[in-house]
Design a protein that fits this description.
The complex is a heterodimer of chains A (113) and B (116).
Chain A: E1 3-6, E2 11-14, E3 19-21, E4 23-26, E5 32-38, E6 44-50, E7 56-59, E8 62-65, E9 75-77, E10 86-95, E11 99-103, E12 107-112
Parallel strand pairs in A: 2-12
Antiparallel strand pairs in A: 1-4, 3-9, 5-6, 5-10, 7-8, 8-9, 10-11, 10-12
Chain B: E1 5-7, E2 10-13, E3 19-24, E4 31-37, E5 44-50, E6 53-56, E7 65-68, E8 75-79, E9 88-95, E10 106-107, E11 111-115
Parallel strand pairs in B: 2-11
Antiparallel strand pairs in B: 1-3, 3-8, 4-5, 4-9, 5-6, 7-8, 9-10, 9-11
Classes of the chains: A mainly beta (113), B mainly beta (116).
Chain lengths: 113, 116
């Protein structure tokens, strides 16, 4: 079935370090791919998305490229800040007569000053 | 900026009691989703509405859970009777009608349920 696998956390980094969170997917169709972020006590919010192969989504210094050949959508940021501490969810969306979104388990990021 | 509203934010109940959660999506959003998020996991779909119609409730435990969106606007999710394993965050999300944006989900803050 359709699924999303992302690296387990927590990931702990120092401020200004480089961030990579790995995400791979399995899908029967041709999904759109998303990264959502969840800050403590809040719901999820969209961080970035890509709808077709080789598209790069970017926002707030984060970016991810849709790699169809490796079925991956890894999240990267060149220099993290303390305010980036949150849980990051990779997700795919498929149109099955209505859009259905499947989320990964989430990766918690801690950034130390 | 418009937001998805949910209430209550927190709910503590005893097992075998009934609980209800309310969600008001962003105005004009056609599709509404209820998810359950267990601590340390990603959201899992319980039910999906398109306007007032159920599109997908295949993962909704129908012996104890029910959901409705009578006028195609706000929605209620009910659990009766609640069990210890229902302790989780219940998230509501909605998506716009506009083509090209209908996959992007807008989430409410969630209702955290604790069943004792």
């Amino acid at each position: 079935g359709d699924s999303v696998t992302q690296m387990e956390g927590p990931v702990t980094l120092s401020e200004e370090a480089f961030l990579t969170i790995n995400c791979t997917y399995t899908a029967t169709g041709y999904p759109s791919l998303f990264w959502y972020v969840q800050y403590p006590g809040e719901g999820l919010q969209l961080l970035l998305k890509a709808t077709k192969a080789d598209d790069k989504g970017s926002n707030k210094g984060f970016e991810a490229t849709y790699r169809k050949e490796t079925t991956s959508f890894h999240l990267e940021k060149g220099s993290v800040q303390v305010s980036d501490s949150a849980v990051y969810f990779c997700a795919l969306s498929l149109n099955t007569g209505g859009f259905k979104t499947i989320f990964g388990a989430g990766t918690r990021l801690f950034v130390k000053a | 900026e418009a937001e998805v509203a949910q209430s209550p934010r927190y709910k503590i109940t005893e097992k075998s009691q009934a609980v209800a959660f309310w969600c008001d999506p962003i105005s004009g959003h056609a599709t509404l989703y209820w998810y359950r998020q267990i601590l340390g996991q990603g959201p899992e779909l319980l039910v999906q509405f398109q306007d007032e119609s159920v599109v997908d409730d295949s993962q909704l435990p129908k012996d104890r859970f029910s959901a409705e969106r009578l006028k195609g606007v706000d929605s209620t999710l009910k659990i009766q009777p609640a069990e210890l394993g229902d302790s989780a965050m219940y998230l509501c999300a909605s998506t716009p009608r506009e083509r090209g944006r209908e996959e992007t989900q807008y989430f409410g803050p969630g209702t955290r349920l604790l069943v004792l």
